[in-house]
Amino acid sequence: MLLPDGGERFIRGTAEMNYDDAGAPDMLTGSLQDVTSDIEQERALREALSEAERANTAKSDFLAVMSHELRTPMNGLLGMLGAVEATPLDGRQREQIRIARTRAEALLAILNDVLDMSKIEAGRMELEEQSFELCPLVASAVYLYPESARAEGVTLTAQV
């Protein structure tokens, strides 16, 4: 319903026709209800949903860009660790480089997981079937977190 001041109201109407004994229309009864606030709330909810979807898309795009930007220096770090590892090192230095490489590879795996999550959210995830060795994978996962587990008073072990 358009109002004289140019505003609008949304009205929901119901009606029922009563008939006399001869079957002719006798009386029309009904009601009108102002549902403007319901319509406005529905519009506000749709707008909020749309805004939330835009924010989620922006977050996914940001995660994808950041994970790409972080992976480049991480790959450089891994390359440098490999170069240092190829030089003459004593046993202690070699172990330190191995630990640094393992931690850097773990961080790169996390960055890849973040990128995968953003791909999943964007509906662009592509699955790939790949064989792997289970025992070394489990051992490397256990090897990464002994200090964290010990700090929490937890013994970390694995059995395959």
TrEMBL record:
The protein's enzyme class: transferase
CDD domains linked: HisKA
Keywords from the UniProt entry: Kinase, Phosphoprotein, Transferase
Keyword Phosphoprotein tagged: yes
Gene Ontology molecular function: kinase activity
Domain PAC: 1-47
PROSITE patterns per UniProt: HIS_KIN (PS50109), PAC (PS50113)
Reaction it catalyzes: ATP + protein L-histidine = ADP + protein N-phospho-L-histidine
Protein name: histidine kinase
